[in-house]
Structures are given as structure tokens and as C-alpha cells.
Amino acid sequence: MDEQLLFETVRRHIVAVVPEIDPAEVTPEVSMADLGCNSIDRAEVVTLVLEDLGIDVPVPEFHGLPHIGALVELLRAHRP
Amino acid sequence: MIGIEWLNVYAGLAGIALTELFDGRGLDHDRLANLMMERRSVGLPFEDPVTNAVNAAKPLVDALTPGERARIELLVTSTESGVDYSKSVASYVHEHLGLSRSCRVLEAKQACYAATGMVQLAAGWLASGHSPGARALVIATDVAVVDEYAQYAEAATGHGAAAVLLGDQPRILAIDPGAYGLHSYETLDSARPEPTLDIADADRSLFAYLDCLTRSFADYADRVEGADFATTFDRLVLHTPFAGLVKAGHRKMMREHTAVGAEAVEADFARRVAPSLAYPQVVGNLCSGSVYLALASTIDRAPVQRPERVGLFSYGSGCASEFLSGVVAPEAGPELGRMRIAERLAARRAVGFEEYTRLLKETRRCLVPERDRRVDPEDWWDFADRAAHPGELLVLTGVENHHRRYDWR
Q: Euclidean distance between the first and final Cα of chain A, in Å?
């Protein structure tokens, strides 16, 4: 599973959860909070991505991720 | 058939509008939309986990004949507001409800999940046939101890108790035997490490709730052949820390289990979920009683026309969760209606922000261990509206040599 695919999966779910977000604004350098996702949206995106990819990541590891790139990196480290 | 014979909720005698609380604390009004809440219950200095539990259960117990009352052979209080490391809230509740001495008495703790865990264990015991005709009383009871340090969680925290009477004549909800799913693992998403301190990690907590919803339902679907999130349940009743999270949980499940668009998800939410949120939206989070407050809400707000299957989800931080189901019949409406929950919630005295902070100075001490303390209920009636609880009311009058003292008003 390459990084681009992981990133696209994250982007797809962000836009699905908050349809007001322009997909072009979703880049590895920004955080979901910057894009306007509130804490409920963020939790929803992460659980949907994990479900979609069939990945199990210990919850504490999601703590304090600075941007979407770091989330993708975390997913990559835990991919099956 | 084993299930809930009767259900009642006590949510205090006072409440505050969330706009008032947001103004007083300088919170961002834009975030009110995320919470989807209007009011929350506010505790008074003569209320504690014991009085809340008794005041919720008393109308149920009083409505039984002495013979029926004697058949309550299990009493459990479920709380994250313990009043002692050893002595249970249930021991006081047992006394003030006047229950039989041949009764198993226990307290359970697993954050907001404990009541449902005990409802399931009690249902299993009742179904065992070891004591035919026995009843079990599970009471979820809690108080709020947070102030401004908790930020938005202060606005979502409720006060009160839900009493659930279980037996073999389930007029409110017949529990589907063997139909459940579990998901639990260790995480520190929220906790109460001190008697006046609730800690919460919002991101971790929201994630764990949504994660457990998906996974406990997956476990349910593994056990129950043909179970489908979109079609098996006529109604959904989810643990409601705040209504906004339930809405997100429903949306997420619909995305995972159906291919329908946003409009259909919204319509499904309005039909199957929204009636369960009316009471939580004006009470706040009742901890492990929250899912039973939501069950009362859906029955009172959307009349049951025919036997309908309800999917219930209970989540407790820490964390443990369960997805279970049951059937509500048309008689549930008039039975529950006798408790006049909506009327009593509407009658709670509206307190302003200044009054709220004055009360909080006293009520935050509720769980702090003290050898001796005197509480004069007469000092606080101005903050209460008795119409919120027309019957006899148990009040805390103090603590004497570590023994909590109560009286009726």
C-alpha cells in the first residue's frame, strides 16, 4: 500500500465527512483542524480510514499528529 | 422473556440553558451546534448519587405491591460518583427504598458502560430460572463535579439517575436473548482520578466511541445471523455524551453499511435516532444512565405503533462497549407515560449563570470525603422547583462520622 493511496483514502474520507472542504486544499502539510474539521469530524475520518483499509492502530498513537502527512506516515507504519 | 418492566429518570430540580452557560464561561457559541444541546440539569447541595438513585427508583418501587417489591432480589447501583472506596451507594439506596433484606446488593463501575453491563448480567441471572419471578433493579446514578476547567465538557455534563426494573414481564423493552456484541480495550480517554476532577482527552474519547460503535456492532452481527445496521432496527438508542456525537456515529455507521447519500442518511437519522435525543438534549450526559434516558426519550417522543426492534449502544470510557437489541411494544408508551418524564424535565427551575456558580461551589464537594458535614436543605429551596418531582423526595442532610444522613421532604 503506497503512500499516495493512503493519502487519497484519507482525502476521500475528509471530503465525505465535511463536504464543504475543497479536495484540492487537502495536502500532507495541513492539519484536519486547519481545514475546518472539528474534533468529532476528525475522529470520524480516522475511524472510517482504518475501517476502509483494514488497519488496526493503537488509539494513543493518534495523539498530537501535526498534519495529514503524519497521519499517512502512521497508517503506513501499521499497514498489514 | 426477560427485559425492562419499567423505567424512570430523575434529572434533578434545576437546570441551566446552554447559551447562558456558554456566555458565562466565554465559550464559543459556534460550538453549540456540535453539541446539539439546549439545557443541562444542575445539582443542588442536598442531592448526591444516593438521593438521585432513590428519587429515580422510588416511583417504580412505590407502584409495586408489597409482594412484588419483596421479589426485587438484586439491587445494583452503577456510578462513577462513588461516595466511599468500600461502602457502596447501593447500601444506602437499599435502605431508603425499603427493599427486602433477602436482596443481593452491589455497586458497579465501568464509566458510562456499567449500567448496561449490569442489565445484561441481571437479565442472564433472571433467565437462569434460579429464582422464578424475581426482579432486579439497576440504577445508574451520577453527579457533575466539573467547573470551568472542563471547558465544553462542563456544558455537556448532566446530573441525575435512571432506574431500570428488570423482570419476566418486560412492558418497556424485551431484551433479545443472546443478541449482543462487545468491544473493550484499555485507553485513558476520560476518567475521574479525584473527587472533583474529571479529565478528558476529547480526540481520544470521540475516536474510541466511534471505533467501539463499529466494532461492537460487528461483534453483534457475527453472533446474530442476518443482522443489518440499516434494516434490522426500527429505532436506535445510543449512549449520548452529547447529541452531536450520536449524529456523527449514526452517519458513520450508515456510510459503512449502506451506499445511500447524505439526504437519505439525514432522513434515517430523523426517523430512527432523533426521538432518542430529545431528553439528552435538555439533561446532559447522565453517564451510564444516558442510554436509558435516550430509550425513555424515543418511547415518549415517537409513539410505538407495533412491536419495534431497538438497537442500543452503550459505551464507557476506559473503555468497554456493547451493542444489544430488544423489542418495544405499543404498551411501552402508556406504561412509561405514567412517569411523566417530559413534564418533570420541563418543570426544573431555570437557574442563571450567577446562581449556577454559587451552587457549584457547594455541589462540587459532593464526593469529597469528609468526616462530618451539615447540609441544610431548607437553605436551597429557592433554587429548586418541586414540580420537577411531585412525590416524596430524599435529601442529603449531612455526614456524621462518615455516615451519610438522609431525610424525606
A: 9
Q: What burial class does residue B18 get, using C-beta atoms within 10 Å of its C-beta: 0-12 exposed, 13-18 middle, 19+ buried?
A: buried
Map residue A41 onto helix, strand or coil: helix
Using a CB–CB cutoff of 8 Å, tell me whether B251 touches chain A: yes
Question: In chain B, what are the domain boundaries?
Answer: 3-408
**One-letter amino acid identity for B292?**
Y
pTM: 0.95
- Residues 6+ away with beta carbon under 8 Å from B322: B113, B116, B117, B120, B180, B181, B182, B183, B216, B313, B314
* pLDDT tens track for B33-59: 889 999 999 999 999 999 999 999 999
In this prediction, residue A1 carries a pLDDT of 59
For residue B164, the model assigns a pLDDT of 98
- CB of B326 closer than 8 Å to CB of B311: no
Q: What is the ipTM of this complex?
A: 0.77
Question: Which residues in chain B (179-238) have CB-CB distances under 8 A to chain A?
Answer: 185, 187, 189, 201-204, 206-211, 214
pLDDT band at A2; cut points 50, 70, 90: confident
Cα–Cα distance for residue pair B312/B137, rounded to 1 Å? 19
B403 an active-site residue? Answer: no
Domain count, chain A: 1
Distance from CA of A2 to the nearest CA of B (A): 23
C-alpha B327/C-alpha A47 separation (Å) is 30
CB B311 within 8 A of CB B236: yes
Q: Name the CATH topology of B3-408.
A: Peroxisomal Thiolase; Chain A, domain 1 (3.40.47)
For the segment B162-191, the average pLDDT, to the nearest whole number, is 97
Catalytic residue among B96, B159, B183, B239, which? B239
The b/e string for B374-409 (b: 16+ C-beta within 10 A; e otherwise) is: ebebeebeebbbeebbeeebbbbbbbeeeebebeee
Domain that holds residue A40: 3-78
Q: How far apart are CA B174 and CA B177, in angstroms?
A: 9
**B15 and B41 Cβ atoms separated by less than 8 Å:** yes
Catalytic residue (one of B73, B80, B154, B322): B80
CA distance A18 to chain B (A): 11
pLDDT at B21 over 90: yes
How many interface pairs between A and B have CB atoms less than 8 angstroms apart?
A: 53
Among B167, B161, B139, B170, which Cα is nearest to B69's?
B167
- Cell for B180? 449482543
Q: Please list every residue in chain B whose beta carbon sits closer than 8 Å to the beta carbon of residue A44.
A: 210, 248, 251-252
